[in-house]
Design goal:
Length: 220
């Protein structure tokens, strides 16, 4: 029994560490440096996510960043599914760890993005019906208002109700709530600008603005 408990704890530890390290990969920073666009942290808002990469004028690098940030969430969840024989609790832990890694990456002194792309990657791989509904919500709100942060906040707020409506496991409901809370916390500055009508719209460049101490981009 003791050996079994040790094996379970080891599995949980590896799941959390592996998911976190995957989530910590800063695709925005890697893409802009290798693509010749410089350090994304010195552009626009200073955020490492796809929305700020788009402000560099490089749509190709923004797409690479979006796919990379979402993909690392997908990989973390799918690996957990395989290793745990599709245990929902383990899968949710891996997804949450990858999401946390993006927000607080060890490679960047724990100063990461806002997790929106990784949020979708995790959701689509963990509970695709809820993830698909959240993605459609983002697209609809973004198309209507052209504000990335607003679309992200609405989608995050509705993720848990979507999980309930599609009869997802309780572990995935908890995952949705966990990520939504962190997304709202990371978007606190955006919420302030939304309330005052000063939030920038999708695709708007911010080249003259010095990057802040903490990123204020609409999505990451």
């Amino acid at each position: 029994m003791q050996d079994l408990a040790q094996a379970v704890y080891l599995s949980l530890g590896l799941t959390l560490l592996g998911g976190y390290l995957l989530g910590s990969i800063p695709f925005g920073l890697i893409a802009t440096r290798l693509g010749g666009a410089g350090d994304i942290r010195q552009i626009g808002s200073g955020n490492i996510g796809a929305t700020n990469v788009l402000r560099s004028g490089r749509k190709d690098l923004a797409a690479i960043t979006l796919l990379g940030d979402a993909g690392k969430g997908v990989v973390a969840v799918l690996l957990a599914r395989w290793l745990s024989h599709d245990n929902p609790f383990i899968v949710a832990l891996a997804g949450g760890a990858a999401f946390t890694g993006h927000l607080f990456p060890v490679w960047l002194k724990f100063k990461g993005g806002k997790g929106v792309a990784t949020f979708y990657g995790v959701l689509l791989a963990a509970c695709w019906p809820a993830g698909l509904l959240a993605a459609v919500t983002w697209l609809a709100v973004a198309a209507l208002f052209r504000i990335s942060s607003l679309a992200a906040l609405v989608a995050a707020a509705l993720a848990a109700p979507f999980a309930l409506a599609t009869d997802q496991d309780a572990a995935f409901l908890g995952l949705c709530l966990f990520m939504a809370v962190l997304i709202f916390i990371r978007h606190k500055d955006n919420i302030g600008r939304l309330l005052t009508g000063q939030e920038p719209r999708i695709g708007k460049k911010k080249t003259a603005e010095a990057p802040p101490t903490q990123s204020t981009d609409g999505a990451a």
